Amino acid sequence: MKTIEIPDLSLVVLIGASGSGKSTFGRSHFRPTEVLSSDFFRGLVSDDENDQSSTPDAFDALYYLLETRLRRGKLTVVDATNVRAEDRKRLVETARKYHCLPVAFVINTPEKVCQERNSNRPDRNFGPHVVRRQVSDLRRGLRGLQREGFRHVHILDDTSDLQIQRVPLWNNRKGEHGPFDIVGDIHGCADELRQLLTKLGWEPHEQTWRHPEGRKVVFLGDLVDRGPKVVEVIDLVRGMIQAGNALCVAGNHDVKLVKWLRGKQVQVKHGLEQSIAELEPLSEEVRSGIASFLDGLVSHYVLDDGKLVVAHAGLREEMHGRGSGAVRVFCLYGETTGETDEFGLPIRYNWAAEYRGRAAVVYGHTPVPQPEWLNNTVNIDTGAVFGGALTALRYPEREFVSVPSAREYSVPIRPLNPVVPQARSSQQVLDDVLDLADVTGKRIVETRLHRNITIREENSIAALEVMSRFATDPHWLIYLPPTMSPSESSTREHYLEYPSEAFDYFRKNGVSRVVCEEKHLGSRAVVVVCKDASIARERFGAVDGRAGVCYTRTGRPFFSDPAEEAALVERVSRAVTEASLWDEFKTGWFCFDCELMPWSAKARELLQRQYAPVGAAGVASLQAVVDALRKSQSAAHLLVVYEERLENLKAYRAAYRRYCWPVATLADYKLAPFHLLASEGKVHSAQTNRWHMETLHRLAAVDPEFIVATRYIELDINDEAEVNAACRWWEDLTGAGGEGMVVKPLDFIAQGPKGFVQPALKCRGREYLRIIYGP
Amino acid sequence: MLLTLSQTGPQAESISFLLHKHPANLHVVELPFGNATVFYTETTDEKFTVQLLLAIDPVELVRGAQQLEQYVNDRPYVASSYLTVAMGRVFGTAMAGNCKKRPELVDTKLPLTVVVEVIRSLGGEQVLHKLFEPLGYKVSVTRHSLDEKFPEWGESPYFRLALEANATVRDTLTHLYVLMPVLDDQKHYYVGDAEVEKLLSRGEGWLNTHPERQLIVSRYLKRRVSLMDQAFARLLSDEVEDTDAAESQAEQSGIAEKELERPLTLHTQRINLVATRLKELGAKTVLDLGCGEGRLIRRLLADRTFERIQGVDVSHRALEVAASRLKLESMPARQRERLTLLQGSLLYRDHRLAGFDAAAVVEVIEHLDQPRLLAFERVLFEFARPTHIVITTPNREYNVLFPTLLPGKMRHGDHRFEWTRQEFEGWAFRVAERFSYTVRFEPVGPVDALHGAPSQMAIFVLGEGGAA
After folding, report:
1. Do A635 and A583 share a domain, yes or no?
2. Which residues neighbour A23 within 8 Å (Cβ) at sequence distance 6 or greater?
3. Is the peptide bond prior to A598 cis by the omega test (within 30 degrees of 0)?
4. pTM above threshold 0.80
5. What is the CATH number of the domain that holds A674?
6. ipTM > 0.90?
7. Which residues in chain B have their CB less than 8 angstroms from residue A464's CB?
8. Is B263-467 CATH 3.40.50.150?
9. Residues B97-151: pLDDT tens digits?
10. A302-325 residue pLDDT tens
């Protein structure tokens, strides 16, 4: 049996006259969903597979599906006669557009057989001249297929006893999981390379290098030119690859050197002269070995289940794992705008700014002062040969490891940007203006803890308006709090909520220790505070000069006056300093989840529009009703009902008044932080709620006038005495007018037998609920 | 909610016959949203006082028919459309003018007093007087305080309304029936054609001569233009022949414009000026950023030199209104092709904004928080980069000339800033320089020698060397 290999991402074009057996061939070697047949599409658009007048529409539909499939990276077979070069041209172009390899299968069945088959099919009532013309067209084009752009051409006189095998592209190394040490452009800096390998923990071993932890090096190409020890570098890299300890992609210099080695005309500049000087004295055999080694380098690799892509000059997402001339050119030279700069060098197009892919892309090619992540891509060419450094990226650790160059081996045409301490990262600068395409339409957000969250289009439409019109600068918006569930309604008389239900919930979900925190009625506030404005600039990329922000649960600035916000940030910052938390957490910033009181400060509009008017209208109205009922005999029985309602209304007024006081300056506010959400390098979700309370109490201790130490108790909800005590504690709190309490599992993120447990349940007191449910 | 009706003087008991409610009994009527109870608190020879007590359960309403959005709600305590529905059930016969036992009383004017304990009056005390005094009532009004503990929260919108008149019970009840929801300016049920019928029949004999008929019709019909048209056409058809349709039309649309006349005129001037300048600049394709409800778009569509107009607004709702105002669905295909409306934000880079000759940003930037102008500048001047950019914004200096604007206040609640001419020009020069545009300025609206014009305009042109 004959075996034909085809790349697993190809556009397979079947070529043959009507009746040649293309469809049978397609059916026997490919999945039904992989074959797009023109007959079938004619049927789809016209209900008649032989309606030739429907051909243009049928091909429109066919190409739509073809493009969709190729974009998605699916092998696709086009089953049409495809006998004329102009029919095939569009197919080759389409394959190129999606960087797939076009493969031609010519089903070279004799004309006589075709004619016989067609005459046995009553639906094919076209005359014999049609097939005759097809066969002659086909013959004429046969020899030009390679030239038309088909990477593989298979002419089959006999389609029986044949097997098609799909082979992965060279670049597909998804099965390699590393860990990797990815090394940037070396350019003959063999000494620096050895130092770097040593620093990375590699050891010389039997003529080559190996890593005790079984790591693998990935070289990003440009091994040659410019530097002092080109051949040493080639030998070292080749040796490691042969030992199975390394991979290497091709760089533009490597490719050019191959051309020279193969005797092609090349301009001897940009450091090629150094390579030539080293290679010229070598034997023809050695040189040809080097040529075939360099020539065999693949232009990019997709590694680690598609999570990592390496290429000399980077790679756009739609080219990952694809094979085409355009992909290779991009890998070698990157993308340029077509213009040149004052040094005559091409101006590079910043493809990374638009990159949104899931795979990390690691590349080199253009020297940069420091490696810097941008949109999950990183350039690690730090100009070793230009006196910079040779840099490696450890993956998956994402650590950079560098060794400085011993000297400047080559002078760059365009000076390397000096390493200036940049206050803001490229990512921050890029993020100054967000792209609408990243936030509109239906979106799916992946979360680390939970399932994916789908944001429906109508919600993203509304969110765009809210975020554009009201939110604070998005650089600062690192957290938006969720709302909190109440506990189940209480079965107890006169209580809408009671602690037992909250405890029951946690007990049912396998939580035994909980923390009960006093609930403050103010407004939710997220406070981000930095040690100073320069840290704010560096860490958050904020150019507004603020050292921190305070925003509401919907991301709006809490204060309309920037001076008030600055004063609050200042005061919290001072407390952090006095409590010595900066050093203890090794951080220059904190993010706190808080309640800011009084309620009336933020909710004044609500109070004026809703709560107070209901109180005013209610008291006036019910007082009149009570007065009238007192004078009536027939309706006297209603008096007691309305007297009670009047009392309730007065209690309602008293309830909301308790949470209101006028604010003139910051001193009139009180801040009750209850979560220390994050600081440099850490999200504190692994800490218990007890830890959060204890840590935040230390802040309150140094500024008790302003920062409230939230009262809390911790208990075992399986211990009846402790539960009873907690209920009494709640009754005391709420009896004294408190809003209630929040019950949280001891662990910040708690998991029960049925999955995640609510992070908190609120349990509110009777007086407070008057405000929510009305008088 | 309590409504109190009294009759004084001889034969004070007449009211009980007219209302068909026996003074010794308690009358309870169940309603979909609660119940109404009628009882008497005075039954002397000199005075009969009858009370209508309406009980509404807000919790039931929120959970049930969802007519109320909030548990905490003033509806149970104020005179509203709930009360008029109750009146219709309880005093329907009286309002219809039926009284079998004492038919002569129906048209007899009696000394009546009415007390509405709590009524919300949109527009304040003045409106109470304006609505009832022309109907012959002596009006006394007391305002309820909002919360005496927090005087800084301001006044409540509620009043105690007392009316006195020599009037028939039927007329008084009818006046209350129509005017209480007008004062309250809300209705808990759907307002459709039937509401026009109701208004015209209840308003028969007094509404068409009421000096505030515009206000009454407009609020009673929830400002729905088609309903108002119907009502006016029929209300005014009784009037003398020479009142032609145009006049009634003018009267009707005058309602909306009355208070806003000045700014609307200014806005029209502004739009005309922007359109004129865009044309002079030779722009064929125009972006209207922050197009709102589409007034500039309408003006541009009328001129065929503008081949392509793209309106962008962050508010999806505003775009829907624009589409309906511009009658997008029924627009002829040739015109329709010239127009695109899309949701977008001035703070996000958007490839759909690139490739236009000109952008108009009319009275928009003052709605952005000032620190976020940085993003706006880059989105428009760096990424969208049209050849011409026209930006208008209020001139704060002019504010002192608005008689109703309090010192230090801005013209619109959502304005984040209002700039003086110097501030605007300073900003515009900086932006122009940074992004290689040239800029010139022009006043919009009547120019005051000292304070300038109410609005100001900057016209940016992409500089020669600025194509990079």
Report:
1. no
2. A35, A37, A39, A79
3. yes
4. no
5. 3.30.470.30
6. no
7. 314, 343, 345, 348
8. yes
9. 888 888 888 899 999 999 999 999 988 899 999 999 999 999 999 999 999 888 8
10. 999 999 999 999 999 999 999 888
